[in-house]
Amino acid sequence: MTGAGPLPTPEGRPTGAPAPRYGPPRATIDRDRSKSWLRRAMPIVAAHRWTFATALALSFAGLVIQVQVPQLLNRAISDSIVRHAVPLSHYGWWVVGLGAAAGLTGFLSRLFLFRTAYAMEYDLRNVVYEHLTTLSFPFYDRVQAGQLISRANSDIRSVHLYLTFAPMILVQSAIAVVAFGYMLSINVLLALVAMVTMPFVYVIGRKMRASMFPVSWLIQARLAEVATVVDENVNGVRVVKAFAAEENQLRSLASAARRVQWATVKDADLRSQWAPAIQNLPQVGLVLVLLFGGYLVIQGHLGVGAILAFNAYLLMMQAPFTMLGMLIMMGQRAAASAGRIYELLDEEPTVVDRPGAVVLTGCRGDITFDDVRFAYGDGSGPAVLDGFCLHLDPGETVALVGATGSGKSTVARLLTRFYDVTGGAVRVDGTDVRDLTLASLRANVGVVLDEPFLFSASIAENIAYGDPGASRERIVAAAVAAGADEFVRALPAGYDTVVGERGYTLSGGQRQRVAIARTLVVNPPILVLDDATSAIDVQVELQIHDALRELMVGRTTLVIAHRLSTISLADRVVLLDGGRVVADGTHAELLATTPRYAEVLAQAEEHEAALAATATATAGATPSEVRP
Ligand SMILES: Nc1ncnc2c1ncn2[C@@H]1O[C@H](COP(=O)(O)OP(=O)(O)OP(=O)(O)O)[C@@H](O)[C@H]1O
Ligand SMILES: [Mg+2]
What burial class does residue 185 get, using C-beta atoms within 10 Å of its C-beta: 0-12 exposed, 13-18 middle, 19+ buried? Predict the structure, then answer.
């Protein structure tokens, strides 16, 4: 792969890239933060209104059918049992028919309801994930992966469940109104007596909501803590084991788990205080019906069948009340979860395309850092770069050398606009990178990061990550240029070998070579190698130098390096110290004129020797076999 293949188009890489396989979410949340969480979620509910409305209508129809049964019972008792006017089987058949109809509507309404629920879950999840992909690096520096995972899972779950089940429960509660209507039609006074307890249910419900909300919030937040600990333990398992720190990690997990336990027990405690009251108040109504209704029957004002029907209606009303308690709890949890999800969705990306940003086309590779100042965070902290000036001519290869922590990687991150400069400007072909579209800038600048991250996919897929349509020939050519071909072929399934999570089934040097190949496939006119060969053997590195040299022809390349061998690839070396370039020239010139340069190189050499020593010592902690 010697500069072969077309340059990527500025808009990204449409060459053979497969169309997205996911249907984008049908709606997103309302951006207006002043609205309540439910109103903000309405666009998502509205997107599924038809299936949802069908589910609700069917559920209501089912209830209307059910509500007929006590009425039939009342009539069966008075017409068939008391007066023998109609055969009892007549009513029997009616009850069977109504039961079958209620069963059918129940089945259909559930079908539609669950469809709606999972469609909303799909939308919410994609809305959150789409938003995450737009967020900038400063956000990812701050946030913990476990928090994101739990927001994308348990929080979304509690929100979508509430969004679908709350209206369903409300519809079912509407049956209470219908049942009450029937009760009124039988006997007004008795109906009012039966409902005496309702205001209490309302008051208790309000109190319950108020006391449960903070606990619900706590539960969701603490679940996220557990997710964070688990995430770190799993991802950091090599460090944990290398330090034999399992015991410590278990302790931190146990304490997070205990905090969840405390909150959930508190939640159950509150629930058990309130829920029985709400659920059993209607029973008090039942007693009153029996007492007062019984009196009316004895006085001859009311038939026995009527008491039976009343009884059945009150039981029917109990179900919604039981669910009402549940609804309140679900609502509290959903409100807390929605708050956490919105917090994420309200996070604005900081590095975005300016209005009127231009597409970088026909990139020559002329790079200028003009008096750049940069500080991490909100820009008020200590400056990592201050007065940093550097110019790279098209096609030039420059080595950036500096002590560890001097800001070399930061320079690379500013060129690709992972972060925006705090002062000054970075220009590509004379245009401020902030005036270019992000997609076109990043398509033209290929970076090999100092920590190569591979996905748990095949090696071929990893190499073709930037251009999923790349042919096998191009993939292999890139691997050859990066010195990866030989070891890849020796793997059990060659290029189709699946690497473990983050590529941990490969050695550090192998990962780096795959990462280099991944960037080469994209064939960018500007190349940044950030310590890209630090874990590769000096011998192997020398082998791939020829290929790398060939690659650098016609490309502007910035190599961040410690090793003399890597530095020798460059036309020019610059020394970064104290946030600015303090020396600029050939390696020999810098050695002769700048004592600090020799110092930094010596430090790097020591550092590398120390690294090599620890690598040998902890080799046992890294799985060396590769699963096919
Ligand atoms: N994401 C970040 N948020 C806050 N500070 C950071 C971040 N990344 C780096 N820093 C700080 O910025 C300084 C420069 O870091 P940088 O990674 O650019 O150094 P480097 O020269 O690449 O070092 P090395 O040779 O060890 O890779 C360091 O002091 C570091 O602590
Ligand atoms: Mg670095």
Answer: exposed
Q: Is the CB of 579 under 6 A from ligand 1?
A: no
- Nearest CA owner, ligand 1 atom 30: 405
What is the number of the ligand 1 atom nearest to the C-alpha of 450? 27
For residues 512-539, give the mean pLDDT.
84
pTM of the model: 0.74
DSSP 381: S
Ligand 1 atom closest to the CA of 407, numbered from 1: 18
Determine the atom of ligand 1 nearest the C-alpha atom of 576.
21
Can you list the domains of the chain with their CATH numbers? 38-345 (1.20.1560.10), 367-618 (3.40.50.300)
pLDDT band for position 622 (50/70/90)? very low
Rounded to 5 degrees, what are φ and ψ at 398? -120, 135
- pLDDT (mean) for 178-201: 84
CA distances, 147 to each of 231, 353, 432 (Å): 10, 27, 35
If we measure between CA atoms, which residue out of 222, 232, 298 comes closest to residue 265? 222
Question: How far is C-alpha 285 from the chain's CA centre?
Answer: 48
* Whether 569 contacts 542, CB under 8 Å: no
How far is 390 from 413, CA to CA, in rounded Å? 15
Name the residue of 378, 409, 560, 576 whose CB sits within 8 Å of the most ligand 1 atoms, as the mutation to test its pocket.
409
The predicted pLDDT at position 22 comes to: 65
Q: How far apart are CA 210 and CA 605, in angstroms?
A: 63
Q: Which ligand is nearest to the CA of 407?
A: 1
CB distance 405 to ligand 1 below 6 Å: yes
